[in-house]
Amino acid sequence: MTRIVASHGAAGTVFAAFDGHRNDDFAPYVYRSDDFGATWTPIAGDLPADAGSYVVRESPSSPDVLFLGNERGVWLSTHGGGRWLRLKNDLPTVPVRDMDVNPATRELVVGTYGRSVYILDVGAIEEMVDSVLAEPAHLFRVPDAREFNRQNTYGSFGDRFFRAENPPSGATFTYYLRDDVGGDVTLTIRRPPAEPAVAAGDGGATKASGPSADAGGGDQGETEVEGEVVHTLTASGRPGVHRVTWDLRTRTPRPRRLGDPTSPDELRRVPPGTYAVTLKAGEHAVTRTLVIEEGWPERNYGRVR
Length: 305
Fold this sequence. Notes:
The protein has three helices and 19 strands. Helices cover 4% and strands 37% of the residues.
């Protein structure tokens, strides 16, 4: 047995993975029990017959979403096992011996055998149930975005200094289209009129009176909302899941006031607060809430588990 984990939400439910490669047995052995281990049901389904099974994890927020690591990478099931799909997204073909989901950031942290650690945002995957895939257009929960004051604290290292590429900075929008809409879609960011965003430097964010601004990124609405348009993005209208990042900037700088920054780029930054984001795909409009925060986060997520 390589891993046994209890369900996050269902009492009595437990998952187990077995690996037999030391005995020249490379078949996957993955099981689920719903009666505290008295009986077990195989859920390996259509996993590769020659890649084994090292670790299985359940999503903390969606019990039907399972992740499995084997000799070739990470596999995903959105049906509680049985049907599996390989997760690639720049993850190489490599043995995955351990992984876990951080419930605070909704990220899958993957430990590979020899190819370092990979982190994948799985928030949209956790929402990807059959009812969502049946919709013509769906905008997934928008994670809170954070603005940072960037500063280069490194001297001149020439070719001696190695630095990996940072992830995209800003607000990330993930959306799903069932069919081709015949052109691009638009993502419009608005500042709700009832409660404007907090001025920069006030150190917080207000709640919007439009789409609900809960910790999960707001409930989905089927209509566009009113308010000042801050920015509009265009993105692909092809079927499937798409992701686009907004850099938290307007197209033109705001008028400079006494004490404001002199940099045009700084004057394009939007103030922290609560905004409404509307996906417009053909005749369909879907709205979510985006909360923009400023500065270093006060909370510390710490370990995954």
